[in-house]
UniProtKB/TrEMBL annotation:
PANTHER family per the UniProt record, alphabetical: DISAGGREGATASE RELATED REPEAT PROTEIN, PTHR40124
Protein known as: Polysaccharide lyase 14 domain-containing protein
Keyword presence, Signal: yes
Segment forming the signal sequence: 1-21
Organism: Mucisphaera calidilacus
Any single Pfam family the record assigns to this protein: Polysacc_lyase_14
Amino acid composition bias (Polar residues), ranges on this chain: 146-157
Region called Disordered, residue ranges: 125-157
Keywords from the UniProt entry: Signal
GO biological process, any: polysaccharide catabolic process
Claim: Translocase is one of the keywords in the record: no
Domain Polysaccharide lyase, chain residue ranges per copy: 94-273
Length: 359
């Protein structure tokens, strides 16, 4: 049983206390508690209690609704054109340290996104939450953010209208001063996990701390519910007091040089951020109200919005901004289906084992 205090405000919930039971959601935010408009420092303080930020006070972060949103309202971050590292950045210090934690969220890269070379996406961390060339020493901290990059598997560049997803780790054994890039691989045939502008993607990753001094730390990732990455040989720490106690919300272009910069303003969108002690499933296409079931309620919602602009909660599942025939087909293909919150389905377990053997 969770011992502590639970705070809940509309779409935001944060649990604070001394211990979390198995399967506990320790933080969730769907941003529906805010009206559409500028995301202010007051909102940031209420949502994340961030000790510092970059991008909110400069007006680069907003709450959006209607067709721009995933469901209800979403968070939008603007990346400044012709510059680097000017997106949105802040951290949330957790109520305590965790030996194992999952982070999940939905992300959408706005229309016409040019990914250029690379950039950063949110992830878990601990201690000093090392980044920026601050290589960990086993006692000070670590981080396990995500990145996107345009490097192909053979070293070539993919078109800048798409990018590959990676795990970006700061740990004592990283081979260079800056982070250790580990590409997601869902097929093992040379194609990595590729994203483009348009669709919403469900991202989830898991970090398990290593036995102090040992190479047995785990990092695992899923994209759209499919396992795409697994390693179990990371040394994050040499001391037991270093745990997962920070969430780094970061999205920016870079890299340390201007050839990472985009040529124009780019908009990335985030929604349904969840930190938990167990795996959380993504919604099935067709599940407008995110209750892990596709049924008549969802069909009625889609029907009432058919032919109209809309987001996921209106019935737009293919990301084109309009509720149409393809969305109806997606709902029909999942009608009367449910998605149970468990990562140990046969398919997921098999893929995890394959990834373990592959790497």
């Amino acid at each position: 049983m969770y011992q502590g205090v639970s705070f809940a405000v509309a779409g935001l919930s944060l649990l604070v206390g001394t211990a979390a039971a198995s399967g506990e959601v320790i933080y969730s935010n769907d941003f529906n508690q805010h009206s559409a408009g500028a995301y202010t420092t007051q909102m940031l303080a209420a949502d994340f209690d961030a000790p510092w930020e970059d991008g909110v006070s400069e007006g680069r972060v907003a709450v959006v609704d209607d067709a721009e949103a995933f469901s209800g309202r979403s968070l939008r971050v603007m990346h400044v054109g012709e510059d680097i590292k000017l997106g949105g950045k802040w951290i949330m210090e957790l109520d305590r340290g965790y030996e194992e934690l999952y982070a999940s969220y939905w992300v959408h890269f706005g229309p016409g996104t040019e990914f250029v070379r690379a950039g950063k996406l949110p992830g878990l961390a601990g201690g000093e939450a090392n980044t920026g060339g601050n290589k960990p020493d086993g006692t000070d901290g670590f981080s396990a953010r995500m990145t996107w990059s345009s490097n192909g598997k053979d070293g070539s560049q993919v078109p800048t209208t798409s990018a590959n997803l990676n795990q970006y780790l700061y740990h004592p054994d990283q081979p260079q001063t800056y982070g250790d890039t580990r590409f997601y691989d869902e097929t093992h045939d040379g194609r990595w996990v590729e994203v483009t502008s348009g669709p919403w993607y469900h991202i989830q990753h898991r970090v398990v701390m290593n036995t102090p001094g040992e190479h047995d730390g785990v990092v695992q990732a899923w994209v759209n519910g499919e396992p795409v990455f697994y390693v179990d040989d990371i040394r994050f720490r040499d001391v037991p007091g270093l745990q997962i106690d920070v969430f780094r919300f970061e999205t920016f272009y870079g890299g340390s040089s201007m050839n990472f910069a985009t040529t124009k303003e780019e908009y990335f969108y985030f929604d349904n951020l969840v930190l938990s002690t167990d795996w959380r499933p993504m919604a099935l296409p067709g599940d407008t109200n995110l209750d892990y079931a596709v049924n008549l309620t969802d069909l009625s919602t889609l029907a009432s919005n058919f032919g109209q602009p809309g987001s996921w909660h209106d019935g737009n599942f293919d990301g084109d901004g309009v509720v149409g025939l393809l969305d109806l087909s997606l709902l029909a293909s999942n009608f009367n289906s449910t998605r149970i919150p468990s990562p140990t389905s046969a398919a997921s377990l098999l893929m995890t084992l394959l990834l373990t053997r592959w790497r």
